Amino acid sequence: MSGPVQPWRPWAVCAPVARWTRDQPLSVLSPESWRGKRAARYETQVDWKTAPVPQ
Description:
The protein is mostly helical.
């Protein structure tokens, strides 16, 4: 690759949230590392993966 790849997580989260029309909360899980930082264990990633997106 010629340079850094832009993260796709913001788009992957915002696109479905912007189109969600139901009363129930929507959860969007993304396998991409948060801010480029990987957790040592998957269990420690779950908190930020399941946290709601700030609006």
